[in-house]
Please model this.
Amino acid sequence: MIDLYTWTTPNGRKVSILLEELGVPYAVHPVDITRDEQFAPDFLRIAPNNRIPAIVDRETGQTLMETGAIMLYLADKHERFLCRGAEYWRMMEWLMWQMGGFGPMLGQAHHFLKYNKGISEYSEQRYRTEAARLYKVLNTRLAGRDYIAGDDTGAYSVADMACWPWASRFEYQEIDLGDFPHVRDWYLRIAERPAVQRGYQVPKFVTEIPLP
Model:
């Protein structure tokens, strides 16, 4: 059994989607970041960086914060959704791309374009431009491929599950997925998966999955 401490954010949904895809039992513990629950002492013992999500594996006693570490741990433990051979490092490359760029930069786009519109024209332009650049990078990668990593047309992996929830907030980023047709097709392909539809609603329903 996995204890999942999470909230309704792209980072939280990365892990709940993976858990649903794996089909392993897990218990959800909502951490309402709008009420600063991520600073509670009990949560900080699991996630010292006071960020969701975090997990506790009751079977092994392992605690983990940071989505990349959590996803690799769960995929490795259950031997699913990891590319093999040379493609393992391609998958890892794009997983790191998400954690180092796609997630943080789109998070800044949310901050300035969605939640603090009009505060800083410079910041809005900076992160609008960077968001479009990152989507262009992903669009190029997905040309002729179903998924981000793997042989031939690709294999659905943790790299996809890490990137997809951030793309699901394309409206926050002022992104028109029609401008990035390979990303749009990939996004819709993943949105159709029942496990993704379930994981998107953890820890609670907010909206249906946005569709372009």
